[in-house]
Design goal:
Strand content: 15-25%
Number of strands: 12
CATH architecture of the largest domain: 3-Layer(aba) Sandwich
Bound molecules: magnesium ion
Distance between the termini: 50 Å
Shape: globular
Structural class: alpha/beta
Strand order of the largest sheet: 1-12-11-10-2-3-4-5
Number of domains: 2
Number of helices: 9
CATH superfamily of the largest domain: HAD superfamily/HAD-like
Order of helices and strands: EHEHEHEEHHEEHEEHEHEEH
Helix content: 25-40%
CATH topology of the largest domain: Rossmann fold
CATH class of the largest domain: Alpha Beta
């Protein structure tokens, strides 16, 4: 065989596996799900189970999603976990479904039978005062900026800017940059999500760690992970080789293997999962 046009110095071919649309691969996915007796379904809330709204308060969990989740929660084959950046209390106000694991504050709060967070996750409690103080400083700074919503959720802070006007966008961006610089020494992590900055304690615990913890608790179950945002990527990465990972919205930068197009598509997936 010859050396080809680059005389043997060609770069190694890079294996690029494109993220795949769930329904294009449904027969094989369906088979994989059906052939595993126990399943651990980990689902994010905003943008995944429910469509993103103008404000977090305006988000609605559609009846079909609630019904499918209820059916799955009653199936002996499924263990269901809903994980969110919302506080646990706020997250639970959307659900009245029993036999479900609920995790708030990106996994820093957990509610589920025989489950308790490990010590490393509980370290967040010590940083609560810092999160509060940063929230106060942000509130002061952005007081005159309409459309900025600051949510102090005790363990974490969310700076929503979905409704900010174009004229204030640059100021908001600059101020976030200034805050990050000024408080860089504080043990907090800033992460940019969909029109939101999430600030959380700098500890070795995130949604990815929580997902790993749950897989250890339910060893042998096939994990199916669905999420739409940057914090869900931590779950996709940590369960990359053991789970069916699904991102809501196509992105070539995602670590998920599959994607669904919208929260409506997620509802269809949940409905189909009930029938398996
Ligand atoms: Mg989300």
């Amino acid at each position: 065989m010859g050396l080809g046009s680059c005389g043997g110095a060609c770069p190694r071919p890079v294996s690029i596996v494109a993220v795949r649309y769930v329904w294009d691969f449904w027969p094989e996915l369906r088979l994989r799900i059906r052939s595993t007796k126990n399943k651990l379904l980990i689902v994010d809330f905003d943008g995944t189970l429910a469509k993103i709204a103008r404000t977090p308060q305006e988000v609605v969990l559609e009846k079909e999603a609630k019904e499918a989740l209820t059916r799955l929660s009653q199936s002996p084959q499924y263990k269901l976990a809903v994980v969110s950046g919302r506080s646990l209390e706020n997250l639970m106000s959307f659900f009245q479904i029993k036999n479900v694991i609920y995790a708030g504050n990106h996994g820093l709060e957990l509610l589920g039978k025989n489950l308790s967070l490990p010590l490393k996750a509980k370290k967040a409690k010590k940083l609560e005062a810092l999160v509060w103080l940063l929230g106060e400083k942000c509130r002061e700074d952005f007081a005159g900026v309409p459309g900025v919503l600051i949510e102090d959720k005790n363990y974490t802070l969310s700076l929503h800017y979905r409704n900010i006007s174009r004229e204030h966008t640059l100021f908001f961006k600059q101020e976030v940059g200034r805050f990050r610089k000024q408080y860089a020494q504080w043990p907090l992590i800033w992460k940019k999500g969909k029109k939101v900055w999430e600030v959380r304690p700098k500890i070795k615990w995130d949604k990815g760690e929580l997902a790993l913890y749950l897989t250890k608790k339910f060893r042998g179950a096939l994990p199916i992970v669905i999420g739409d945002d940057v914090t869900d990527e931590d779950m996709f990465k940590s369960l990359k080789h053991s789970a069916i990972t699904i991102r809501v919205g196509h992105s070539n930068k995602s670590s998920a293997d599959y994607y669904l197009k919208s929260s409506r598509d997620v509802r269809t997936f949940l409905g189909e999962s009930c029938r398996l």
